[in-house]
Design goal:
With 332 residues, the chain is an alpha/beta fold. It has one domain: P-loop containing nucleotide triphosphate hydrolases (Rossmann fold, 3-Layer(aba) Sandwich), CATH 3.40.50. 46% of the residues lie in helices and 15% in strands. It contains 13 helices and 10 strands. The strands form 2 sheets. It has an 8-stranded mixed beta sheet with strand order 3-4-2-5-1-6-7-10, sandwiched between helices. Strands 8-9 form a two-stranded antiparallel ribbon. Helix 1 packs across helix 13, helix 5 packs across helix 6 and helix 9 runs parallel beside helix 11. The relative contact order is 0.15. About 2% of the residues have low confidence.
């Protein structure tokens, strides 16, 4: 099982939509997938589950069928992690649902991160809680891939989640603030990996499952905006072509000055159109855009866009799988 997290410090880059479609495409390609919603806003959960199911889950005062149930014993100081219900949302797709109350666990994660330096067993159990929940539930579900969605911040919740992931994919928009988010991400990943490596070696409970915290970057995905006559506008190209150098310098930490453009950068996993007109249709049909049918309203030009989106997401998924294969063959 491999875990892939989609993350950027900059919000509004289509991250959750990307996670949703990538998960569906992996399932389409025959892989058993577990989606994990660790963004307290639970937007991924609301995309996967129908409204009546959402209302049933979140109207419960206790024992919610969300990730909150997995950390409740730890949060209350009465035990370790607990089982989390896996919601079957489609063939080959299970979901660990998000919960707004996960944000209340942030302070405990933050304070116990520091306590790990002293080798405190309880602190390690808290900091590794999401990793161990994911590990348990992916084994239970038989998942080949676990795909994780998180919020766009550098809080303790995201830190505990990122060190739990094998790989990170960075969704991008071609603008100034996404580039700044990319720099911030690279700097923070480097810091967190070093800090966790130090803490990992201080753990005294040798039979406790802990993540290695290596967080290998697979590449970035650019969501294309401002298209005119099938060609990116000048402002789009200005920012898009700065991404390769920033990614190499801050995320991969290579010192080589890059003259690459985004269209020939091996770290660019895909450049995706926004598919504005298909998104409301897909939300209404509660399915990915590439699965829309004429019965859903996808006719004429819309249906041609559906066919193109299928190919786009298939190529993206294959590129990610290929990168994972390269990483494994290199012993990373």
């Amino acid at each position: 099982m491999k875990t892939i997290i989609f993350f950027n410090n900059k919000g509004g880059v289509g991250k959750t939509t990307l996670v949703y479609h990538f998960t569906y495409m992996l399932a389409e390609l025959g892989y058993n997938c577990l989606a994990v919603d660790l963004d307290p806003q639970a937007n991924l959960t609301s995309m996967f589950l129908p409204d009546d199911e959402l209302e049933r889950i979140y109207s419960q005062e206790s024992n919610r069928e969300t990730l909150l149930s997995g950390i409740k014993p730890l949060d209350r100081g009465i035990g370790d992690i607990a089982r989390v219900k896996i919601h079957e949302v489609a063939p080959n797709i299970g979901l660990l649902a998000g919960d707004l109350e996960l944000s209340l666990f942030e302070d405990k994660l933050s304070s116990n991160w520091s306590k790990c330096v002293d080798g405190d067993e309880a602190a390690f159990r808290i900091v590794s809680s999401f990793y161990r929940i994911i590990l348990n539930e992916t084994e239970q579900y038989g998942a080949e891939y676990c795909i994780i969605d998180v919020g766009p911040n550098f809080g303790a919740l995201n830190r505990a989640t990122l060190i739990s992931a094998d790989y990170v994919v960075v969704p991008m928009a071609a603008d100034l603030f996404s580039l700044q988010g990319l720099r911030n991400l690279g700097n923070r990943l480097s810091t967190w990996k070093a800090e966790w490596s130090d803490r990992f070696n201080r753990n005294r409970v040798l039979d406790m499952s802990l993540p290695d915290g290596l967080i290998k970057p697979l590449g970035y995905v650019v969501m294309q905006h401002g298209i005119k006559e099938s060609r990116p506008v000048q402002s789009y190209m200005k920012w898009a072509n700065r991404i390769p150098e920033v990614f190499e310098k801050y995320v991969l930490e290579t010192a080589v000055a890059s003259e690459k453009k985004v269209e020939n950068d091996e770290n660019c996993l895909a450049v995706l159109k926004h598919y504005h007109s298909l998104i409301p249709m897909a939300m209404e049909a509660r399915k990915p855009i590439f699965a829309l049918k004429p019965a859903d309203g996808a006719i004429g030009a819309h249906y041609q866009a559906v066919l193109r989106s299928y190919q786009d997401f298939k190529l993206l998924s294959q590129a990610i799988l290929s990168k994972i294969g390269e990483s494994k063959s290199m012993g990373c």
